[in-house]
Recover the amino acids of this structure.
């Protein structure tokens, strides 16, 4: 038994999902399920619906009525519908309906090419570059393109030209299952000749990013982690680089900057790659729903979180992942091990959200109840050896690079030891105040076989 | 609603929108009320460069943390640039809780700190940016400037455009406001087991030429590895 001929309805709404409260297109898609079980988001405020199966329920007119009512009830202000045999004609019909302020345009089966023929090339989803080239060559209407021989277009434009001709002839084999939210977009390209400089890779990168971002747009997701894989010429080895935007995004320009910075780290001072590259793959490893927030007209000092995310991403791309950090102390007594900073996450997990609202116990307060400030500690990156004169075990004088200073009071010792199984340490810490008012954090440690004690300056309070 | 009533309502809303101050200006409290009364505008000025000078242990970082917490409570995003990479993580955990965002930038090369400040201010998305000194010595007017004059002017313009507070813990040329810190004398407390630090020591904060205010700063009591550890008053090991 053959299946019913394909019928597709394209539904457009005027809302920009990036600014509305339907960022992933979920609300629109859910509403359209009232008319058909097969619904696919295809872009901002746009969905395709399988239009078959309404023959005994009033036909396509009834389907369109049901779809329109469901969408308007879901809170959308306006809706346009195009119905045709294939997706490219249905999309063009919906766009034409929006242009002419008509609610619906239904294209009869078999009339797809005739319908498309007088429409401008912009009604086809062609790449901008190809569309401009075709216009330069004198093609303005879709019908003019359909009249050409397909092989001519193949010779001149390759697969893109063939695809354009197929669409112009109302042939479209795109199905509803193009990409689901479970699939992670990726794009790769093999270079005609191995590249040993960055320029060819950057040229290809733009193309890969366009494809990946289009896929992300189609499923209403943003990339929170990507990877770049360089296939090296003459070996099976690959070189990988991670790209972590500070906030999930599908902005091509921002992701291009980050990928470019990641690639630039792989070249030497002369701008040459360590080994010639014959292929490049851009892979989205993790996605997240779009998190764009709308600005508030009534708030004068509203700040764009996406601008903050872009700035932080650029910092990380240039300075390294660890350079943009959040404090994340470990439950370890050794101070230098406890002092841990972790890279600021691009997307917060529920645990991180909880950690932000519930700081871990044992962390200091900022101000006491009576309004006194709590002291903060500066921990030197490496303890500095100092000379200390002690009386009855307590430090009284100290000499370091700044000179010799008296300690008017030294409180301690706070004994600390541990890690006997790998890197044992045994220290006595003192908080000591100099005559000038400096509050230092010193320790005495027994190191080496002779177990001779040495004094170290570990930090100071400020 | 009749058409005329709708128009009146719209006009009222437009007036409300127009009355919202949008230009640069305003100030943010430091979190220490006695200091805020001394500051012009009742707090740290937005859109200007504020320099904090003083020797080690004069309370600069403690007050900076209080000011950051106060600003963060308003929901603003804050960036703290720490080229010396000496901030102690447990002291700053409190700032990542709640609304708004707090980020610490730890450039591997201290010379990139000014570039970091430029990028962050230029985004216009941060309410405050603090640039710490890259050394641990006393910072005073006689010290080498933290930023060159041309760089300071550029960052000042960016802070003005972003209407953000830009703090430098270190001397910069042409700062609009200077806060000078000085630690008060510490008197030891005699107990049976020997002298101890007092629980509070005063610090003095001078606001330009407008006068100085005393701010109490708690001496660290619990060791920085956590308040669960008890103070050991036994004699030192020999």
């Amino acid at each position: 038994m053959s299946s019913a001929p394909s019928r597709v309805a394209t539904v457009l709404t005027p809302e920009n999902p990036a600014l509305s409260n339907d960022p992933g297109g979920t609300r629109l898609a859910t509403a359209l399920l009232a008319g058909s079980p097969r619904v696919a988001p295809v872009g901002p405020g746009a969905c395709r619906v399988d239009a078959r199966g309404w023959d005994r329920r009033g036909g396509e007119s009834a389907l369109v009525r049901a779809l329109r009512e469901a969408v308007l009830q879901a809170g959308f202000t306006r809706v346009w519908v195009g119905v045709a045999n294939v997706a490219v004609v249905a999309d063009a019909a919906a766009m034409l309906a929006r242009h002419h302020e008509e609610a619906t345009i239904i294209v009869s089966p078999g009339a797809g090419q005739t319908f498309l023929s007088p429409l401008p090339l912009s009604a086809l989803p062609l790449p901008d570059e190809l569309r401009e080239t075709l216009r330069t060559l004198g093609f303005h209407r879709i019908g003019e393109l359909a009249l050409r021989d397909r092989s001519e277009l193949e010779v001149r434009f390759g697969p893109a030209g063939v695809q354009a001709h197929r669409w112009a002839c109302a042939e479209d084999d795109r199905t509803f299952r193009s990409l689901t939210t479970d699939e992670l977009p990726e794009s790769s390209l093999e270079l005609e000749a191995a590249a040993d400089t960055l320029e060819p890779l950057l040229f290809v990168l733009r193309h890969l990013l366009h494809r990946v971002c289009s896929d992300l747009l189609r499923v209403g997701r943003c990339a929170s982690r990507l990877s770049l894989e360089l296939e090296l010429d003459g070996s099976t080895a690959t070189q990988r680089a991670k790209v972590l935007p500070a906030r999930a995004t599908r902005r091509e320009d921002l992701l291009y900057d980050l990928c470019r910075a990641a690639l630039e780290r792989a070249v030497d001072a002369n701008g040459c790659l360590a080994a010639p590259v014959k292929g490049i793959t851009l892979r989205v490893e993790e996605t997240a729903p779009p998190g764009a927030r709308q600005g508030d007209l009534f708030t004068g000092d509203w700040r764009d979180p996406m601008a903050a995310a872009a700035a932080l991403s650029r910092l990380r791309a240039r300075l390294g992942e660890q350079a943009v950090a959040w404090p994340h102390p470990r439950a370890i007594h050794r101070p230098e091990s406890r002092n841990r900073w972790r890279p600021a996450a691009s997307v917060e997990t529920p645990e991180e959200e909880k950690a932000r609202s519930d700081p871990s116990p044992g962390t200091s307060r900022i101000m006491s109840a009576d309004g006194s400030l709590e002291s903060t500690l500066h921990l030197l990156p490496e303890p500095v050896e100092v000379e200390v004169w002690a009386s009855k075990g307590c430090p009284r004088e100290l000499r370091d690079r700044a000179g010799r200073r008296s300690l008017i009071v030294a409180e301690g010792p706070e004994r600390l030891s541990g890690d006997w199984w790998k890197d044992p340490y045994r220290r006595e810490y003192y908080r000591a105040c100099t005559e000038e008012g400096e509050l230092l954090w010193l320790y005495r440690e027994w190191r080496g076989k002779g177990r001779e004690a040495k004094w170290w300056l570990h930090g100071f309070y400020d | 609603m009749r058409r005329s009533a709708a128009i009146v309502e719209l006009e009222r809303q437009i007036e409300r929108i127009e009355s919202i101050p949008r230009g640069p200006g305003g100030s943010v409290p430091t979190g220490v009320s006695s200091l805020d009364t001394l500051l012009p505008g009742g707090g740290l000025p937005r859109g200007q460069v504020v320099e904090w000078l003083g020797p080690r242990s004069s309370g600069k970082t403690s007050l900076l943390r209080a000011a950051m917490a106060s600003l963060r409570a308003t929901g603003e995003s804050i960036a703290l640039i720490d080229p010396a990479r000496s901030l102690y993580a447990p002291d700053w955990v409190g700032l990542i809780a709640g609304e708004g965002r707090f980020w610490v930038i730890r450039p591997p090369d201290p010379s990139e700190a000014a570039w970091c400040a430029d990028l962050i201010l230029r985004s216009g998305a941060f309410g405050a940016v603090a640039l710490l000194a890259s050394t641990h010595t006393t910072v005073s007017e006689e010290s080498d400037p933290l930023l060159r004059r041309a760089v300071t002017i550029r960052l000042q313009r960016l802070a003005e455009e972003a209407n953000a507070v830009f703090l430098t813990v270190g001397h910069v040329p042409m700062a609009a406001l200077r806060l000078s810190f000085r630690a008060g004398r510490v008197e030891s407390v005699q107990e049976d087991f020997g002298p101890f630090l007092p629980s509070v020591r005063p610090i003095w904060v001078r606001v330009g030429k407008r006068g100085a205010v005393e701010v109490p700063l708690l001496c660290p009591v619990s060791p920085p590895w956590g308040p669960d550890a008890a103070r050991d008053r036994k004699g030192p090991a020999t």
Summary: Residues 227-236 of chain B have pLDDT under 50 and may be disordered. The domain at 23-184+195-209 of chain B is CATH 3.40.50.300 (Rossmann fold). Chain B has one domain: 23-184+195-209. The radius of gyration of chain B is 22 Å.
